[in-house]
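Hey team,

Sharing the TonB-dependent receptor run so nobody has to redo it. Sequence (664 residues) first:
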Amino acid sequence: MSLQRTLLAAAVCAAFTPFGAQAQSTTTVTVSANPLGKEESLQILSPTKILSGSELRSKIGSSLGETLGSELGVSASGFGAGASRPIIRGLEGPRVKILQNGMSVADVSGLSNDHAVASETASSQQIEILRGPAALLYGSGAIGGLVNVVDGRIPTSLSKQLNGEFEVKYVGVNSEKSGSFFLDGSINDIALHLDGNSRDTKDYKIPGFANANGEGDMKGRLSNSFTREHSMGFGATLIKSWGHIGASVQNMQDVYGIPTEEMSYIDLDQTRFDIDAAVFKPFFVFDTLKFKLGSTDYQHTEKLQDGTPATDFKNRTLETRTSLSHTNWNGWEGSLGLQTEHANFSALSAETGRADTVPTTRSTSNAIFLVEQKNFGAITLSGGGRIEKVKRQPQASFNLPQREFNLHSFSLGGLIPVANGYAIVSSLSSAQRAPTTEELYSNGPHESTLTFDIGDNRLKTEKSRNIEFSVQKTSGLVQWKINAFVNKVDNYVFGEIDGLRVDEEGEHDPEGEFTQRFWKQAKATIRGGEAEISYNQFGEGFSIRGFADTSRGTLAARGSLPLQPANRVGADIGYRSGAWRNTISVLHAQKQDRLAASETFVTPSFTKVDLNVTYTHPYMNTQVTWFAQIKNLLNQDIRLATSVLRETVPQPMRGLIAGVRVNF
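Structure output:
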């Protein structure tokens, strides 16, 4: 303890040492995932957080979950270093939609916690988080919210001269060596973009035993927690006075270990092609016609420790989104559109080529959506709706029934100013979600989670009703907001583990490798709140931000939902002066003992302290930023309540990160 206190005192002194003054400017960013393109403080239907600039760069980790896991209302699934997905307000998997530039990432990370999100954050320029059912304007898979990773791969403006960014980084706790870059330029009326990323990490160090009870052979380092990820993307856009049309292609390759006893690993490959077009003044009553297309060829193979392929997952998708927007129809501004999705998914045995866990299934979705907003004096009202038809068609040879779902969703919200800079925001949402392919048709072993999953092709539509209330102050040196929400869900789909051990054929075996998991439905309630207050968050000198969040999910007559996040409080204390930016962040998570019927492990509390120091200076025609971070300064044994592997997979021990970033 004395060592921890000494380190903390040293960190505080380092973070707040005064330096010479130099003015800094802030940039207003808009939420591109919102059809109205409003600023963060003007969102009504969904509480929103935008990460960009230096704040985003200081938080980027090896996965999307690690990057966002400390944001308000957001946790991480924490399935090792390679696979960690964001969990929003206690909802995860197929209830949180992951977008890339406003289009679905189209991976299979929603299927299981061991599957990585196929979107690289190192080359991203902005990450947007929309919490709450209003985000479902982008699909029925967004009952809990959505995350949109914006990388600018299809540029929409011409760069008069070449500009970009290069970054190299070393992380001591896992010997990470990584580098990323992006370049933007133009030739006449054609804007060009190129980006890439490479990351290679070894197994990361842990502060003690991997097993929470302090037993076992794994100590000091988490075996099979390595990652090797590489990506490259290119985009080009023709930009004219009438609008633009552009296209991009990206390839991502990712190999990462699964830190379980089996020591298996996943070999992932995805190629993505996108089109983005906009036409200004297409019709006399509309301002902009937008069209987006995303085509994805995704596959990953789960391999045994010796490299033998076990299961091949494939997902080939084609998604389109067409929208017409207007800015003033008798005071109304909004957008209406059409979205289509076609997906072919399979999970086949690498040895036999037959269906292993989930049969080959074709899914289609066709939807129309509308969002409108208008000021009535000082009061702003906003509403949106979506009608969607989803079809699941298993391959005929499996003799499984085809399912169709007609989904209807809407959101209504209002912003009422009560004083200068103060406002009350409230929203009401009704959302529906079709059960996923794996929830309907699973019937086989899953090596990485050691479960034998059994679906139910009779599952009904999941129906959610959400009410949200917020009080906020969005101007001045001191700003704050308080959010409260209640989400009632009928036919909530969940996995029930009965404890029965089976072999890979599903036959009862007391020594079997797998545990049965059945997909079932029940009524669920998720309620919680978030609070945040900040002083001088983006100005020179001292700044402070305090926050807290809590959510609790329960199943009717069954107790708590599984993998519920812990209650958390935290603070970010910063000092800016001239070229220096220094921040110390503290996050305290309480003990999480609200366990589901199938859970036995109470996640202990922890306090995570991170220190971040950056120094920026001009060099020739560039801006150079040197940065250093210490993560988990107190060397706590951190176990995430939202992780399936919380009993055996702690988070990394204290580690130093150092690097340099060049912008020009």
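Residues 1-28 have pLDDT under 50 and may be disordered.

Ping me if you want the raw files.
A.
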